[in-house]
Amino acid sequence: MSLHDEQIVENAAAEDLALVLAGEYAQVAAAVLSGLEAEKASRVLTLLPYAARADILRRIVAMRPVSRQGLREVLHVLAERLRDRRGAREPRGGAAVAAAIARELDAANRQELLAEIEEAAPPLHEELLAALLAFDELALLEDEHFAALFRAVAPETWPLALLGAPEALRARVVPLLDAARRGALQGLEAELESGAAVGGAALRLADVAQAREEVMNQARRLLL
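The structure assignment produced for this chain is given below.
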């Protein structure tokens, strides 16, 4: 594989790449898209046949390292078919790469793909959801989105969800809690610090995990 081959593939217009990849196996398309910038990969994905999109994104989630020899052969064949010149980076694969591509899709396309992946491969769907939006990242939401999330979550869920949460998230949520919920949070924290909950530690951890999952379910519903 020459640098020229790489340049041809990455510099190709999204429309040209989609036209070429439409005739390839889904695994080949996944390898190529995972090596592109997320924004461009998402444009190519939306131009591919509808029936193939979820399968390609699912394969990116599950992708393991691609051999250099295999990559050379794929890019050489594709380069011969493309007229534009743009270099492709090595396919990386994994949930983080798939999530970066999925974020660039419009909400309707993203939701459809997520639903199809959930039906076809639930474990990969969970992995992709975790990469798309993590609990620790909620503090980074814009004010409008954060306010909507706070309202969507049941008030009694927040105190448990905030136990051990990052300070940045606590700083945004605590001022919004009413006096009763602040008191509940303080009571839970005091209980844990004093060791009074040692006997029910496992249950407490399970409760915290469940509360955070409820928060994340609302976050995904609103944001993804």
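Interim note for the steering committee: The chain has two domains: 3-132, 135-223. The chain is about 70% helix and 0% strand.
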